[in-house]
Write a structure and sequence with these properties.
The protein has 259 residues and is of the alpha+beta class. Among the domains are: 39 residues, no CATH class; 139 residues, Trna Endonuclease, Chain: A, domain 1, CATH 3.40.1350. The protein is 39% helix and 10% strand. It has eight helices and six strands, in the order ααααββαβββααβα. The strands form two sheets. Strands 3-4-5-6 form a four-stranded mixed β-sheet, sandwiched between helices. A hairpin with a 5-residue loop joins strand 1 and strand 2. The longest helix is centred in the middle third of the chain and has 19 residues. The C terminus is likely disordered.
């Protein structure tokens, strides 16, 4: 007890909880976490808040199936884990876009010349497409004719009604949690970048209101997703469970929804 109290400023757990290891660990973990936040820069604070979110690390528990793209090669896994931990990933150098890349290697997450930006978007969109098919909802990618006044095309459209007798139109985006654009906002707010991206998407496709159910699906590079994306994933998971009888579809950790 004396050793524990030397590390914690909290009171010991009540008697009925003292047999649970978690009751002793959480006060010390929370204390160290707050110390890290207080001593961090705005970018580091945004990273810590994002990677501490409940579902931001669900990809680590996805089933490692190579046919679904769930089995990253060693270097990809090293970089993914290093980004979450804030570890040194590379030697400082100048990017093709003429901007300096520091040892943390985060510049590539938002660089306009990074091929990864397009592959992330395609992978997310394809996962949603397959998940909808799994719950027996036919859908098409990048449908034409949704907006007739310009060349904008959302990422997907269900061919049958989703809710309220209306088809579902979705548009997916993956934004950089620590991009300068989003760091101008409150870095301590969980999912700030994703929520902001969803607002912009909804404004962009405001003409769809009334004709379709539009859902902006925004994810952050550090794994956070909020509000509308979370709601859609839960609905899809519930429908997959009803269609297949696989109750694990309700869990992101199963990797059945997003692989």
């Amino acid at each position: 007890m004396n050793l524990w109290q030397e590390q914690s400023i909290s009171q010991p757990p009540i008697l009925t909880l003292r047999s649970a290891q978690k009751a002793w660990d959480i006060p010390i973990v929370d204390q160290h976490y707050q110390t890290l936040l207080d001593a961090s820069s705005q970018a580091e604070r945004a990273r810590l808040v994002a990677v501490s979110a409940k579902d931001s690390g669900s990809w680590l528990n996805a089933l490692p199936l190579s046919v679904l793209g769930n089995l990253p090669e060693d270097n990809s896994f090293r970089i993914s884990a290093g980004l979450r931990l804030g570890a040194r990933l590379c030697e400082p150098h100048v990017c093709r876009c003429k901007k300096l890349v520091d040892e943390l290697g985060r510049h590539g997450l938002s660089c306009q010349l990074s091929a990864g930006r397009h592959s992330r978007h395609s992978a997310l969109n394809d996962s949603l497409h397959r998940a909808l098919i799994s719950c027996k909802v036919p859908n098409v990618l990048e449908p034409n004719g949704i907006l007739r006044d310009d060349q904008k095309r959302p990422d997907g459209l269900t061919l049958i009604p989703w809710q309220q007798g209306k088809a579902l139109v979705r548009d997916v985006t993956c934004v950089d949690t620590v991009a300068e654009t989003y760091l101008r906002g409150p870095a301590w707010r969980l999912g700030y970048a994703a929520n902001k991206a969803e607002e912009l998407k909804r404004h962009k496709y405001r003409e769809l209101d009334g004709r379709y159910l539009f859902c902006p699906v925004a994810f952050e590079t550090f794994g956070t997703f909020r509000n509308e994306a979370s709601s859609l994933i839960q609905q899809i998971g519930k429908r997959i469970a009803e269609a297949t009888g696989e109750t694990r579809s309700l869990s992101l950790n199963s990797g059945l929804i997003f692989d």
